[in-house]
Protein 1
Amino acid sequence: MKLITYSKNIFLPVTNLCRNRCQYCSFRRNLDEAHLISRSAAQQLLEEGRDHGCSEALFTLGERPEEVEGFHLMLAGEGREDLLGYLVELCELAIEHDLLPHTNAGLLSEEDLATLQPYNASMGLMLESCAKLDAHEQSPGKNPELRLKHIARAGRLHIPFTTGILVGIGESWQDRIQSIQAISRLHDEHGHIQEVIVQPFDPKPGTAMSTHPRPEREDLVRTVRLARELLPREVAVQVPPNLADPLPLIEAGADDLGGISPITRDEINPNSSWPREEELKRSLFAYELKERLPVYPRFIRRGWHGSKTRRLTAALASEDGLRRKSISSREWW
Ligand SMILES: O=c1nc2n(C[C@H](O)[C@H](O)[C@H](O)CO)c3cc(O)ccc3cc-2c(=O)[nH]1
Ligand SMILES: C[C@H]1O[C@@H](n2cnc3c(N)ncnc32)[C@H](O)[C@@H]1O
Ligand code: SF4
């Protein structure tokens, strides 16, 4: 039976302040409406996550919020001077609560990426697309060259990495192919890509792209097929089951469903609720559905997960025999 994996996570929106203005995004807010997660709110979510058996704390935030005037006042409200220090503190808090951090903070400097590495089991940054698109006209951080550089830097630092493409934001088929090939080349060089997300664009009311059509199912199927063909076998192709029916995409070669949360919503796609584990088990009965950690086994074996997560990762990986399980359909270990 083919193996399909997912991670049980909680979604922590650290701040929705962002220097970019992606035309599809409803997560970002202007200063007057923006928030910074408080220690106590984070703590409460982490406690709930632990109680629900989650293994991943997904920290997501706008890119370089420090560049927005006024953010330092929000930080000061939490008694901090810099965002990085606060992110490290939140990751430490997650680890104390038995949850493995996975941070996607947008573009980071080499120094900041290196600072976060020890505290994260894995990290992520979507390439989105290797093409320069209108949707990113006001988003300096979505410059594909900068994103590819960031992903390469993560590779040099041995950070197990999640990236992916956003499908249906104005890119061509050629762009999709080239984006996947670019990710594949980075993996050939550094070996750090654990999964590539094929993320369908989902129109959001109130955004510039609210009337832009969502991609056709057949286009998603073709994109997943392309990704599966162009990427080496050990790199998982991830599809979010709250944005499109996963079954045809799994049939086309997808092998991971990403983070699924029993308690928090997908703050990027707040109106698309995740299916429950039982629902997925029912609809994907022809597959072996299996929970995984936010860091894939081969990276644990190589010791690439952040040093501060070592004990927790070992404990979680051995918990239900994950460590020894032999798996037929995929090079899981
Ligand atoms: O719940 C979500 N998880 C998202 N994830 C998280 C992902 O599902 C899991 O955190 C990873 O599979 C690690 O276990 C992302 C992670 C990244 O590094 C980059 C982009 C995303 C996008 C989403 C998303 O839109 N919704
Ligand atoms: C975290 C990731 O969420 C994705 N993202 C942001 N906005 C949308 C949307 N409207 N539809 C689908 N995905 C989106 C981007 O790819 C970002 O990198
Ligand atoms: S997708 Fe990320 S970078 Fe783009 S506006 Fe939203 S929060 Fe900012």
Note: Residues 238 and 256 are 4 Å apart (CA to CA).
Protein 2
Amino acid sequence: MEIATCSRMVLCALRQQVLRCSSHCRTWARLLQRQRSSCVYSSIHGFNQDEIREKLQAFHGGSIDLLKQDSGIAVLTINNPSRMNAFSGSMMIDLEERVSQLENWPEGKGLIVQGAAETFCSGSDLNAVRAISNQQDGMKMCMFMQNALTRLLRLPLISVALVEGRALGGGAELTTACDFRLMEAGSVIQFVHKHMGLVPGWGGAARLVHLVGSQNALKLLGGAVKVDPELGVNIGLVDGVLEGHQKTEGAAPLLQQAENWLSRYTKGPAPVIQAVKKVVLSGRELPLSEALRTEKDIFGMVWGAPANLEALASKSKHK
Ligand SMILES: CC[C@H](C(=O)O)C(=O)SCCNC(=O)CCNC(=O)[C@H](O)C(C)(C)COP(=O)(O)OP(=O)(O)OC[C@H]1O[C@@H](n2cnc3c(N)ncnc32)[C@H](O)[C@@H]1OP(=O)(O)O
């Protein structure tokens, strides 16, 4: 082969390689950008993820367990029963890692957040709280948890907190990082922060105001009110009440009841369910013009896609 032909072939192969690499890099850059934009705090706010992870890791115990099911509904379990599912530092890191796994789940449609051993979550582990009660560490933990819970709420999955037993302090805040809340009869959500000389710091106050309005939020935080299912439904915090399966004979297990409740919203192909969540999220979080532009982009992803073409071909009627 002539030297000129040979070097043309090498150049061509190199160019293809570079193109492949740059497209790969662009995809990565987009992914990283998306990840960053889901967070509230980054290095420009003085937030150093690795530093706080190292600090939190020192307070271990418990775990956050993730079960991805073929149905497209995942179950996230807060698991630290000997401390009423309080969040240790390592569980905070676990949570952030599980959220990352859910961000990269193309088949996902729904998420149920529950506590282990018949209670939801009693907030931060008070042993860790005592050890990091200085201002600086408190701020770092607060930023870490705000990032993790904001990313949880922004997942392209329809999420529900299944409240059994008690959701206290940070546990109450966690329920507000889901799209919906279901309460077992007899369970309680309580923002106990005032009794601890605090206010919510995991984003729970901001989200609570969005959910129930500022008047009700002021009452719940100012009075550290115990919210039972009836009050929760009345003020719009709670979306459904489940029968306590131990107290009501013949009632299905709570997780099964929650899955049945959620399934009406997760029925259908994953790309469509994810698009539904994304348009609602942009409407909830963005100024109108930006939300409209985002809605157009998301619409563009489902228009003419397989589910849309299939529906058109089937000439379905909506009776
Ligand atoms: C406030 C803001 C902050 C944030 O947002 O970051 C927080 O969340 S601070 C934490 C707020 N939560 C609390 O203050 C809960 C305190 N605990 C209780 O009120 C009770 O323990 C209760 C109601 C959860 C359960 O009461 P019960 O009588 O049923 O059981 P025990 O009290 O015997 O609890 C069993 C066992 O769990 C330990 N426990 C419970 N919650 C925590 C917690 N948040 N951190 C660490 N440990 C907790 C409790 O001490 C018992 O352990 P034991 O070794 O048997 O004494």
Note: The CA atoms of residues 52 and 113 lie 24 Å apart.
